[in-house]
Structures are given as structure tokens and as C-alpha cells.
């Protein structure tokens, strides 16, 4: 009895220590997410973000969430976006903190899943930090539409988790939850419709004989297509930048895009400067060396995993499950890569889901080796080095060039426009003209008409007139001291105030 009490006490103490360790990791993840993104902010909207806001403001709830005739059909995202915009109101500064909270929650989910997958809190710790640090998070963090990417990735992660657990416990509820999440994901971001084969893969490899599950999976896919066709009149997804996939898709471009994404995944910045910040040929030699070291280490981890599987092949079941599981995660990686390789270019934000799946695969391979082999310290060291050097250290370096990615200069410009007007004068900007000397930023009429409405709570934004002039000589004398006069500063992507009311 005394021994049993002592064992129970030890168990409780260990459990309490684990809970404390988990809480510390959660706090650290949140603190790290806010710290490394501390320079990112949104105080003014432009382009897609501004258009999304204008739709929220001008359309009814029903038409915003379920538009007919749009080029895209994303009711789950639009519902989430409506809620977010309702909460934010004219407090645009909330956009980034909300994005960072979502990023932190995603990393926490990954932390607990990887803890189980790898049976190592240490691996889970470095994995979740690599996910938060990832350079692929730039859009999720910095844009109002970042919710689109982060929400769809969050759903994909849970699809992966539920299907993987289903392969082991065969609980039908897990499969059906994953299928519901798949439908929600398709109505969040249509590109993930390509993940359908993973459901059949799971059913086939687990030798599931319940025919209704196969039928329900196929029916769900057909239903998604039917609903999309009803609302937008098309089965194919729209392309990037106003293009149509049917017009731009070629086998060659598809293969090239996939190759580019796989290069990104293993540490290369494979795109042009405006898409990745710093192209590979300009990357510091020391970082390039780290990438190659990471490639070697990932090869080592894979080789060790394969050797372990071969050694365990005599047991049959263990080896078969290991092969099945590795292909499962590889399938998710390939599916996520394929989903974003059909349009005219590769943007890093589309690789984030693939990256998380790669981290899952690495964690799984380590977990398998740990459970079936005694030689884990070497593999543990290799995995940690990959997660620290290949992912975290390299991405911290790549992050320094984020400001060269196409969206950041524009965001800085419109943050500056907000800061020099609403940020300084608040309601004093109404009933005034805002003269801007120069138009190298090519502000559209839509932006000029809509930008200041995002701050308006009393219907007075129409009283603001944005007027572009080529020089100060074109500004009426009476405007000086009465209206707001700004000048573009292209060298710094800002606006400079040269006259104030």
C-alpha cells in the first residue's frame, strides 16, 4: 500500500511538472510570436484588404457571406471575416494582434500534437517555435486577409490530426469530423479541395470495409463542386491577380511551381525578390551553408528512419504502419504543394501548410525511431539541429528582407497615409481636402474614395477630398493652413506632411 501510494504521488508530481512545462511553452510561444513580429502593424488598408472592408460595409450580411456571381466561393472565411471586421470596427491596429493570436493558437495545437507524435516535448518545443518563426507566415501576420490563409491552414492541420488518429483507433467519429472539416476547408480556401485523395488513402490502407464511408467521401466532394457551381457558375478555382486557371495553366508551369515550392520547403529562397524578399543568389554564404547542412541532416533522418523500418520488418505490422504513416504525411505535403502550383506564380504564403506538414513528418520519423530503436540521441540531435538551424535560424535571416516583398512597401505607404492624417488629426480630417504632391504610388480612385471611410463612424468620410497634384504650385493659396498637404517620399515609402490646418 505504501509503495502504491508512493507511485501515485510520483505520477501526480510528474503530471504537474508536465502541465507546468506546457504552460511555460504556451506563454513562450505567444511572447515569441509578438516579439519577432513587433515591427509589423496595420493602420491603413489598401488593395484586397480595403476591398474586403468595403464589401463588409456596403453589403448585407447575407450577400457578404454568400455572394452570387463572385469569382470565388469562401463562405466559411467570409463569415469569419465578417465577425473579425465587426469586432475591429475602425480600430485597424487590432488586425495584427488578432493575427498573432491565431498564429499562437495554431502553434500550440501543433505543439501538443507533435508531443504525442514524437513522444518528446523537446522536439515539440523546437517544432512549434519553428512554425511561429517561419518566413511563410508573413501574409498571415501582416494582412487583414491573412485570416484566409491562417484559418484554412488551421483546418487542414485538424484534418491531418483526425485522419491520423483514425488510422490507429478506427473511431468513425474521427473520420466524419475530418470530412466535415474538409468541406469547411473547401469553403474557406478552394485550393485545398485537392486533399480529397487523403480520405481514400486512409480508408484503403486501414482496410476499412464500410462502403458508406467511401460513398460519403465521394458525395461530399461532389456536393462541394455543386454548391460552388451554383454560386459562382464554375468548377475551376480562380487564379492569382485576376487570372483564370483555365487560361494560364500548363504542365510545364505546374511542374516548375512544384519544384519551386519544394525548394522553399527545404530552406532555399527560390523566387524573385518581390515574392521572397531576397533571392537565393543574394543570400549570405553562411546561410547557404546552413541550408546544405540541413539537407544533409534531413537526408540522415530519413535514412535512419528507413533503416529502422527495415530492421523492424520482421515484426511486419510495425514496419507496415511506419511506411503507411510516412506516406500519409508525404501525401499531405504533396497535396498542399499541388494545391498552390496551378496558378501563375508561387507566393511563400501558400507554402505554410506544406511546411507544417513537413515538420509533422520529421517529428513522426523521430517518434518512430525513438519507440523502436535505442540509438535515438543521434537522431534527436539531428532533428533539433534541423529545426533550429534549417528552419528557425534561416527564417530569422530571411525575415530581415520581408520589407522587399511586394505587399510591404504598399502597406508602409498606407500606414504612413493613415499616420499623417487620421493618426494625427482624428475627426479633424473631415470636411477637408487632402492634397498629395506626386502620384508615383499610383493610388486608385477606389482607394482615394474608400481609404478614409475605414476610420469614419459618423458618415462624414464623403466630405474628404483627395487631390493629387504634380507640384506645390498647383495647390490653392487658401488650402495652406486650412487643408492637409502631403508629399510622397518614394525613397522611404511614406508620406511627408508639408502643410497642416
Describe the structure using short key phrases.
single chain, 501 residues, four-stranded mixed β-sheet, 4 strands, globular
Strand segment count: 4
Task: Estimate the mean pLDDT confidence.
Answer: 91
Taken from the alpha-carbon principal axes, the silhouette is: globular
Oligomer type: single chain
SSE series: HHHHHHHHHHHHHHHHHHHHEHEEE
Proportion of strand residues: under 5%
In short:
By secondary structure, the protein is mostly helical. The chain has helices at 2-36, 47-58, 61-65, 75-88, 95-118, 121-133, 138-142, 146-169, 172-186, 196-205, 211-232, 245-248, 251-265, 273-276, 285-311, 317-339, 352-372, 376-399, 407-420, 422-425, 445-450; strands at residues 433-437, 465-469, 484-489, 494-499. It has a four-stranded mixed sheet with strand order 2-1-3-4, covered by helices on one side.
Question: Please, could you describe this protein's structure?
Answer:
This protein starts with a helix and ends with a strand. The chain is globular and about 90 Å long. It is 64% helix and 4% strand. Strands 2-1-3-4 form a four-stranded mixed β-sheet, covered by helices on one side. α1 (2-36) runs antiparallel to α5 (95-118). The mean pLDDT is 91. β3 and β4 form a beta hairpin. It has 501 residues and is mostly helical.
Amino acid at each position: 500500500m505504501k509503495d502504491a501510494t508512493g507511485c501515485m504521488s510520483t505520477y501526480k508530481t510528474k503530471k504537474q511538472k508536465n502541465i507546468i512545462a506546457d504552460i511555460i511553452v504556451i506563454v513562450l510561444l505567444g511572447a515569441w510570436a509578438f516579439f519577432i513580429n513587433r515591427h509589423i502593424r496595420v493602420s491603413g488598408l489598401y488593395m484586397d484588404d480595403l476591398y474586403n472592408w468595403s464589401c463588409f460595409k456596403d453589403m448585407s450580411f447575407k450577400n457578404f457571406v454568400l455572394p452570387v456571381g463572385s469569382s470565388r466561393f469562401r463562405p466559411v472565411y467570409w463569415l469569419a471575416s465578417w465577425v473579425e471586421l465587426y469586432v475591429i470596427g475602425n480600430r485597424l491596429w487590432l488586425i495584427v494582434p488578432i493575427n498573432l493570436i491565431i498564429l499562437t493558437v495554431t502553434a500550440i495545437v501543433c505543439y501538443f500534437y507533435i508531443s504525442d507524435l514524437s513522444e518528446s516535448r523537446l522536439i515539440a518545443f523546437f517544432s512549434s517555435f519553428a512554425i511561429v518563426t517561419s518566413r511563410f507566415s508573413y501574409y498571415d501576420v501582416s494582412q487583414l486577409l491573412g485570416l484566409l490563409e491562417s484559418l484554412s491552414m488551421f483546418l487542414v492541420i485538424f484534418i491531418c490530426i483526425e485522419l491520423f488518429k483514425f488510422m490507429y483507433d478506427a473511431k468513425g467519429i474521427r473520420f466524419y469530423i475530418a470530412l466535415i472539416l474538409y468541406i469547411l476547408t473547401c469553403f474557406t480556401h478552394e485550393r485545398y479541395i485537392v486533399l480529397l485523395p487523403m480520405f481514400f488513402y486512409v480508408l484503403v490502407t486501414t482496410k476499412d470495409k464500410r462502403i458508406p464511408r467511401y460513398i460519403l467521401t465521394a458525395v461530399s466532394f461532389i456536393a462541394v463542386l455543386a454548391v460552388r457551381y451554383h454560386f459562382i457558375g464554375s468548377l475551376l478555382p480562380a487564379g492569382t491577380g485576376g487570372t483564370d486557371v483555365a487560361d494560364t495553366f500548363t504542365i510545364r508551369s505546374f511542374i516548375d511551381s512544384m519544384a519551386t515550392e519544394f525548394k522553399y520547403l527545404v530552406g532555399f529562397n527560390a523566387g524573385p525578390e518581390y515574392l521572397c524578399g531576397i533571392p537565393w543568389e543574394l543570400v549570405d554564404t553562411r546561410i547557404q551553408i546552413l541550408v546544405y547542412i540541413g539537407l544533409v541532416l534531413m537526408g540522415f533522418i530519413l535514412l535512419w528512419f528507413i533503416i529502422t523500418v527495415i530492421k523492424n520488418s520482421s515484426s511486419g505490422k510495425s514496419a507496415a504502419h511506419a511506411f503507411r504513416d510516412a506516406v500519409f504525411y508525404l501525401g499531405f505535403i504533396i497535396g498542399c504543394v499541388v494545391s498552390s502550383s496551378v496558378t501563375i506564380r508561387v507566393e511563400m504564403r501558400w507554402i505554410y501548410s506544406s511546411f507544417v506538414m513537413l515538420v509533422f513528418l520529421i517529428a513522426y520519423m523521430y517518434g518512430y525511431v525513438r519507440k523502436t530503436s535505442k540509438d535515438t540521441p543521434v537522431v534527436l540531435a539531428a532533428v533539433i539541429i534541423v529545426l533550429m538551424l534549417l528552419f528557425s535560424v534561416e527564417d530569422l535571416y530571411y525575415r530581415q528582407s520581408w520589407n522587399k516583398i511586394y505587399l510591404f512597401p504598399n502597406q508602409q505607404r498606407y500606414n504612413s497615409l493613415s499616420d499623417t492624417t487620421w493618426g494625427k488629426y482624428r475627426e479633424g480630417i473631415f470636411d477637408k481636402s487632402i492634397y498629395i504632391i506626386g502620384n508615383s504610388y499610383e493610388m486608385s480612385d477606389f482607394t482615394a474614395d474608400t481609404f478614409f471611410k475605414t476610420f469614419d463612424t459618423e458618415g462624414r468620410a464623403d466630405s474628404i477630398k483627395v487631390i493629387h497634384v504634380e507640384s506645390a504650385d498647383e495647390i490653392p493659396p487658401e488650402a495652406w493652413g486650412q487643408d492637409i498637404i502631403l508629399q510622397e517620399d518614394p525613397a522611404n515609402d511614406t508620406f511627408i506632411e508639408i502643410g497642416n490646418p
